[in-house]
Amino acid sequence: MSQNLTRKHRRRLFVKEAAAVMVAASLLSGCSLLPQKQVVLQPPLVQPAAEKVDAIEVKKATIERSFSGAAVVASSKNVPLFYKESGRLKELHVKLGDEVKAGQLVAELDMGDLDLRVKLQKLSLERAQIEYFRVKQSGVTGNELRMKEIDLEREQLMLDSMNDQFESAKLTTTISGIVSYLDTKSPGDGLNGYTPLVTVADPTQLYLIYTAEDPKQIAGVQRDMAVQIKMGDKKFDGKVLQSPSDAPITLNKEIDDRNTRLLYIAIAKPDKTFELGKTADIHIVLEKRDDVVVIPRSGLRTYLGRTYVQALDGDRRKEIDVQPGIMTSTEVEIVKGLDPGMKVILNN
C-alpha cells in the first residue's frame, strides 16, 4: 500500500515538472517574437588625406631663348638670262641642274628664214664690192664712184643688221655655274621680252636661306647674330646677313611680305658638302643669361594683369609677385621676387 502511494507521488511530481518546463519554453518562444531593438553603429573615424603639393626648390641656372630650323643652300650670285624682245622659242639647250660654262648657248629663238636671208645678203654685198672695185679701176671718179660706194655701204649695213638679229636669237650664259631655274617652255612657245627663261647660279658663292611659315618665328633674329650650322655630321659657323628687321623696303607689297619671312645666313668656311638645294640645320641664340633664378614655366601664374607665384611657407601657401625675364616654352627667368632655396608650387 505504501509503495503505491510513493509511485503516485512521484508521478505527480514528474507531471508538475514537465508542465513547468513547457510553460517556460512557451514564454521563451513568445519573447523571440517581440521586435528587437537595433543597435546603431558609429562610422569609423577617417583621417583626412594630406594635400599633395608639387613644389620645386628655386635654384640658379642658365637660361637660353633660341631659334632652330632647316635652311636651304643657295647661291648668292644668280644671273637671270632673258631676251630683250619678244619672240618664239626654237630650242632649249640646257636642263635644270646642268653645269654650264661662260659663253655656252642655252636657248635659241625661231627667226624664220633669217639664216637664208643672211646668206643672200652676203652675196649682195660681194656683188656690190665687185662692182665698186671694177668702176674704181676703170678710172671713174666723182659722183659715179660715190654712188658705187653708197651701194657697197648699204649692203654692208644690211648684212650687219641681219647678223645682229641672228646673234640676238642666241641666248648664252655670262657666267659658269649651274642651271638653278628653267622656265617651262617648249619649242614654238612665245616668249616675252625681259622675262627670265634660265637662271644660272654660281656654286662657289653660297649662303643659306630660311623661309618661316609665320614671321613671328624669326621676329627676334637680328643682323650679325651668330649662327650654328650643321650639315650632316659636320658643324660650321655662320652669321645672319639679313633678317626681316633690316630688309630693304622695296614698295613692292609681294617682295616686302616675302622679306618678312626670310633669313639670309653666311657660311664661314663652306666645304663640298654644301650643294645647291641641300638643307642644313641652323641654331641661333636670341638671348642667354647665366647664373640667374630660373623656375619651370608651370610655376608662373597670371591673373588680371598680375604676375605671381605660389610659394610654400612651412605648411602654408603664400602668393608672391614676381618680375619675369627671359621666357622659353619650358622655363622662365625670375628677375625679381624669388631667392634660391625658396619652394615654388607648380600649377600642374
From TrEMBL:
Q: Which SUPFAM superfamilies match?
A: HlyD-like secretion proteins
Q: Where in the cell is it found?
A: Cell envelope
Q: Which InterPro entries match?
A: MdtA-like_C (IPR058627), UPF0194_transport (IPR050465)
Keyword list, A-Z:
Coiled coil
Start and end of every Multidrug resistance protein MdtA-like C-terminal permuted SH3 domain? 291-346
Q: Out of the domains of life, which is the source? A: Bacteria
**What Pfam families does the record tag this protein with?**
RND-MFP_C
What this protein is called in its record is Efflux RND transporter periplasmic adaptor subunit
What is the taxonomic lineage of the source species? Bacteria, Bacillati, Bacillota, Bacilli, Bacillales
